[in-house]
């Protein structure tokens, strides 16, 4: 809420768009050259090159190097919590694998979830968990990872599964009163939380129904790769792990902590440590394999759990389908995502410092001559901020500050703005590879943003739904109700 918006009167809209155009061209060429490997490092450097272009524009407009670095430092500071959560998610994934939690979820999931209902079931499960926890990130880091494993075992394209996970996770994130963005949007627009939630359901529920229908159709029509032998998979899982419903105690505790409004970082740490203990109790043979010993000692148990938390581990299996599922990168796997976030924050920080973000938002605001134009400008501003600032909070805060007066001047209730901020700012952040949300979800689920993007139906449809409501004047609440004589 205290985010500063830097304004530079000397900056023209053409100058403000130079770094954006340069970044889009460079990223496009880089992805063309590297394909799926672009996130391994080259995209990160391209973001720094984009920041350099922005800095050059700033120097020509007499913005000091110190001012730019100060804003970069502020941007990076704002991501500290996200970075720590990312590291803890990596740790959690490692211990949940060696403890048998994820294999147990896959084991029971394979018996319950048939291919025909798997995608809509994934959407619904993630929606429920996300509403309960108020966090799309926690949902992906817990049930999301398990559902990716089940979907992979069933032979689904992982992009489809990740799209269902993300669609469900962001549906809950939007509507849960415990979600930070759900509280931030009405605060920026000037309305209260529950008015915002009630008004937001008008666009969110139809979008969700369409998303559910699409996943039902996709689940019934998709030709999954190969003929998966479920019995063989179950046998191989049992051969590698001790499977027990008691292992679900750990994820139940983590979800319970989040529901009780425990900080996500604390809940994930508790989940990691408990899973490490469960690994020693339920899977001593796995611990011995990782530590390279025949009999467990305190030292070898410590080493086995610590290796799973911090680095890459591979649980041996002869089943090729399970090979990737039995591999975890721990905290080390998240370093590439953290690298991407830091480079994105450099670009966003310099763009903010030179006044480019404010200039682009002002240009969009000038296009708002009609009610529809105002809604469209808000959507465009949110998308632009998600692309350039690489942060969903800025995509809510900056347009919220810029457009609040415009909505009031047109006689529109503030919940129109808060709903649009969520429909366009919150949910689209995950569709941008270098945005903190896109980088997080890709790193957590192990599926590239471009692979899940076509299937993140809820996230794609949400901004279009809000524009349709605006275009046809459907449920557009006025600030003052006219009284007829």
The gist of it:
By secondary structure, the protein is mainly α. Helix content is 74%, strand content 1%. It starts with 12 loop residues before the first helix and ends in a 14-residue tail after the last helix.
Whole-number average pLDDT?
85
Write down how many β-strands occur, each being a DSSP E stretch of 2 or more residues: 2
Which quaternary structure do these chains form?
single chain
Helix content: over 70%
The proportion of residues in beta strands is: under 5%
What does this structure look like?
- The protein has 485 residues and is an all-alpha fold.
- It has 25 helices and 2 strands.
- It has helices at residues 13-34, 42-60, 65-78, 80-98, 101-112, 115-133, 136-154, 158-175, 180-189, 193-221, 230-240, 249-259, 264-282, 284-291, 298-310, 320-323, 330-333, 335-353, 356-366, 371-388, 392-409, 414-426, 436-445, 449-452, 457-471; strands at residues 313-314, 327-328.
- The protein has a two-stranded antiparallel sheet.
- The longest helix has 29 residues, at 193-221.
- 55% of the residues are buried.
- The chain crosses the membrane at residues 12-33, 45-61, 82-106, 112-133, 145-171, 197-220, 265-282, 338-358, 452-474.
- GO terms for molecular function: antiporter activity.
- Its main location: membrane.
